[in-house]
Amino acid sequence: MLKFSNLSIKFKIMILALMVSVLLTLSLIFASTILSNRNLSNLGISMGMNDAKMHTKLISNWVLERKRDLETYANTHVLEGHSWQDKQNYLKEELSKSSNDYFFFFIADKEGDYSTTWSTDVGNISDRDYFSKVLNDRQTYISKPLISKSTGEPIIVIATPLPEEEKEGFSLLAAVINLKQFSDYINKLGIKHFDSYSYIINNDGKIIAHPDNRMIIKENISEKSNLIDKKLVSLSSKIKISNSGMVKYKDEDEKSYLFYHNINGTDGWKLITVIPEEVFVRPLATTSKKLILIGLITIIISVIFSIFIANNLSKPIVELKDVFNKGAEGNLSVRAHKKSQDEIGEAIDSFNKMMDTINKLTYNDPLTGLVNLFCFTEKVDKELQKHQSLSQKVVSRASNCKTKWGKLIVLSIGIDNFKTINDSFGHEVGDQLLKSITMRLKNYLPDGTIISRMGDEFYLYIEGLKNKQEILLKGQNLLSEVNQHYTINGDIIYLTSSLGIAVYPDSGYTAQMLIKNSGLAMHLVKDRNGNDIQFYSAGMENELSERMSLESKLRLALEREEFILYYQPLINAQSEKVQGFEALIRWKHPSEGMISPARFIPLAEQNGLIIDIGQWALKRACQQLKQWQELGYDDLYVSVNIAPQEFQNPDFVEKVEAILLETGIEPKSLELEITERATMENISYTIESLKELKKIGVKIAIDDFGTGYSSLSYLKEFAINTLKIDQSFIRELTLDDIDNKNAAIAETIITIGHNLDLKVTAEGVERREQLEFLKARGCDVLQGYYFSRPVDEEKAIKLL
């Protein structure tokens, strides 16, 4: 065996140097591992605490928003002085907008008898603790977890007092939150580590929300059960008395960290987040392996480099920990600077992405990048406060804040019939359309203008306009900018929008009031067929309430068979004899009498009832035509108006075929009138649908021709039979005035129709000279009061 003493000095020095290097390197590796593990462990705990705190803040904000929403509902005009039916309809509408935040609403009287948004006289809640507290304290209160009397589901109740002036005897308004749905919401916001989850307890330790629905209300962390072990019970007292913290927990040989934090705005609720220890151990093991590898390389290089590398490995971890601490303190703008591509660099990327996501969820609309309504409200309130302070130094409040900045206004822009666009083109196109509208608004408005989106509505804060005329001009320019056509995925989309305006301080002194009132004005425009501008004024709530009442009656009109059809004759221009009838719907209400189509048709188009009403009218018209044909009027035909939503419905052609088959009339005896604008909403769909209808044998007329957007290039592609000249071009037509513009337009349409081998119908004929003019130009069919007003079926047959 070779002895050490027999080796050359060179090898002895080399061996000694290697031994020293190895020992020093191993020592450095050992020290670095301990230091890194300690820092990473602290970092993991800081991350857990930070996540729990921010998660808690989101939940707290959610609870606060529910309270504010409920207080807003309670103080609306509808809940203060209207009937229970009006209240119920209002709450149903608000419930449909709530994105499943609420299970249902209910209203209770002073005796505790309550009715929900779905049922009346459900039961009595006078034995509930929140009932007496709300009535006595006159404040919004969140109940303890309980089992719903009406549904048997685990719930919590947020209750608020109704104004004492309430005339129907009701005392409180309450929103019911299903704890199972609440649990789903909690864990969607939670930490996304494998096997990690979050749940909520109240101040007694009872579980309010949990991903395992079996534990909701039924389990308490202070009481041992099949689902709660004694280790958690032993920790429960510490969790209940501390506002926040972390404890280690072992369950069935699996170690976990429990992070808990008080939820502000609640009665002692705590959020508990459970993260397996494996989540923290895994990066520690990975880091240790890398340190060993680095240490082996450093043996060759030198001991000095080993120390240098250890210091450089430790430094970014400490820096990252400091950044996490700043984030835990609520600084959402803090970001870590990435200096490496290893696990620490990945942790920095994850942290920065997490902070970006939290910031966006807190303040921005994820689709358009605009601020959300919560952030918009905060920003506008700050602007109002700033101008209030400045205006008090310049002029009194009576000046309506007419400082050098001019008027302060909030505008609400709502897209008319956006649901129809979504149904016709798909939600992906609808999203692209909202993005395009956002870009137009940004490009048109000055930089820094505060813009927000909620659904298909946009809210804008604008200042600097001096008077109502300037505000109106600004609104008109905005509508003109938004209402231009859009090309998305090859489809041309035409739209209109409605605009509501609320001016500070006439329409409100806070952002919330201005947003609400501009929205009321905008919705009032929509109820009046849209595509217009409306300033907010007192009394609009009453008009909207009347609209809701009419909508409720409209929903019952079909099943109660309150609709009837009137018939206006279609006259052969040469023989001046009846060759068909246009079916026109009328609503005969049992108590209000005849309700004008101008009142209920726009409403039906907005709420979607127009599809069912249109199908009824089509079927009834075909049935009546069949009766007339059986009396010997074989050549008679009927023309039926088709609403845009009805035509754009994907199964429209199939429904037409089914009605023809059921009623037994020939397809050639039916003419469908489709407005010019309806054909342009989805060109490819229109072309295909009209071809299918032509194959069946049904005749198609383009109604109100000359008032819409169609171009001749598309017109020649449409499988149609007739052009109907809009009555606006006929009413002022006289033989003494044949050179006017209306005469030119009418004559041009007749020429275009005949050149395209189409029939031409003129509606709105009221005088003999109009008949003579149209007859002389070769118009095929005439319609109007000169021949007959729309009449019922008994009078119609006498015209034949």
Automatic annotation (TrEMBL):
Keyword Membrane: yes
Domain EAL: 547-800
One example of a Gene Ontology biological process annotation: signal transduction
Record GO cellular component, one term: plasma membrane
Segments crossing the lipid bilayer: 291-311
CDD domains cross-referenced by the UniProt entry: EAL, GGDEF, HAMP, PDC1_DGC_like, PDC2_MCP_like
Coiled coil start-end: none
Molecular function via GO: cyclic-guanylate-specific phosphodiesterase activity
Domain GGDEF: 406-538
Keywords recorded for this protein, A-Z: Cell membrane, Membrane, Transmembrane, Transmembrane helix
Subcellular location: Cell membrane
Pfam family, one: HAMP
HAMP domain sequence ranges: 311-363
Entry membrane topology: Multi-pass membrane protein
UniProt cross-references to NCBIfam families, sorted A to Z: GGDEF
PANTHER family the record matches: CYCLIC DI-GMP PHOSPHODIESTERASE PDEF, OXYGEN SENSOR PROTEIN DOSP
Name of the protein in its database record: Diguanylate cyclase (GGDEF) domain-containing protein
Species of origin: Orenia metallireducens
